[in-house]
Amino acid sequence: MQSIIIDLFQKPGQYKKVAGFILVALLAAFPYIYFNNYYLHIAILVGIFVILSLSLNLITGFTGQLCLGHAAFYGVGAYVGALLMKNLQMNFFLALIVSFLVTGLFGLLLGIPTLRLRGDYLAIVTLGFGEIVRLVFINWEEVTNGPMGLRSIPAPSIMGFVLKERYMFYYLILIMVLLVLFLMNRLINSGFGMAMQTIKADEIAAESIGIYPVKYKLIAFILSSGLAGVAGCFYASYVSYISPTTFVYNTSVTILAMVVLGGLGSLAGSVIGAAVLTLIPEVLRFISDYRMLLFGALMVLMMIFKPEGFWGVSKRVKNIYKLKAGRRHHERDIKSQ
């Protein structure tokens, strides 16, 4: 038995696999360790924001396109799923697929004219799109019920078994998060993922080797918006009530902060960023009058001392070594003179 364990850890890459297996086991056991509805609720919110953070990282972290309207896709997915389940009695999992397709279509329609833009221009367009969608939610009362929102959204059901308990939602979002992580990891490490990262590094160089940037950015934008729609559909079914106030500009900024704080272009960073920015406001709730002030101060300090995010340590270390090497080279030049 001892030799088997030693061989397991001596194989290249096995540390990550073993650590991942242990983490998944702990997450699966979480409801039994802390069987508390409040803790489970926070864990479910973390799972929702992990999917949102991963989806935004796909377009912002891996292709370098700044999007400030991600909450709009989140809201479209929530309203589409809620209307299908409430009015047409559609099964949750089928509604989940339709929400992905509809929000992906919105991403396609927005992406075709805008993804040729870069930097601040794209950010402004997506910001405007987010505000348009919010106003539609408020004013299209015949469909969205306006500011009052949609109530009594059905819970998911599997072969007639309704998922009513909170721990059931926890396991459902855990499975969804693991599935999204698996698929995104495969995507990022494929030829498509390498092409996206090449475009982020240098679009002109990418074009010179036969990579068409608009095509890859558009596909990434469609997938990103579709995944946001999936998170929205789950959220609607989980809370059984949605309103336009949930899908505002502040939500887009929060998701973007999760991506940046966790580390741009890092799947693990998206998970860490979503967990930290969801948990810190709850941890600081005992100082309710000052918690957002302290929260903001912590974010500023984080950006000063770890600008590449929680999972940007290796890049940060490389930059430090480059800086030291540059200083040594400069000192040698001075001495030689």
Please give the domain count.
2
Task: Kindly estimate the percentage of residues that lie in beta strands according to DSSP.
Answer: under 5%
- Please bin the fraction of helical residues: over 70%
Strand order of the largest sheet: 1-2
Cα-to-Cα separation, first versus last residue: 64 Å
Query: How many beta-strand segments?
Result: 2
Instruction: Return Rg in Å.
Output: 22 Å
| General shape | globular
CATH architecture of the largest domain: Orthogonal Bundle
SSE pattern: HHHHHHHEEHHHHHHHH
Which keywords apply here?
15 helices, ABC transporter involved in vitamin B12 uptake, BtuC, 2 domains
What's the helix and strand layout?
Blueprint lengths: L1 H9 L3 H20 L3 H24 L9 H18 L4 H23 L5 H20 L1 H4 L12 E2 L2 E2 L3 H23 L2 H11 L1 H6 L4 H27 L9 H14 L4 H17 L7 H15 L7 H24 L1
Antiparallel strand pairs: 1-2
Helix pairs in contact: 3-8, 3-11, 3-12, 3-13, 4-5, 4-6, 4-11, 5-11, 9-11, 12-13
Structure description:
By secondary structure, the protein is an all-alpha fold. It has two domains: 1-33; 36-305, Orthogonal Bundle (ABC transporter involved in vitamin B12 uptake, BtuC). It has helices spanning 2-10, 14-33, 37-60, 70-87, 92-114, 120-139, 141-144, 166-188, 191-201, 203-208, 213-239, 249-262, 267-283, 291-305, 313-336, and strands at 157-158, 161-162. Strands 1-2 form a two-stranded antiparallel ribbon. Helix 3 (37-60) packs antiparallel against helix 11 and helix 3 crosses helix 13.
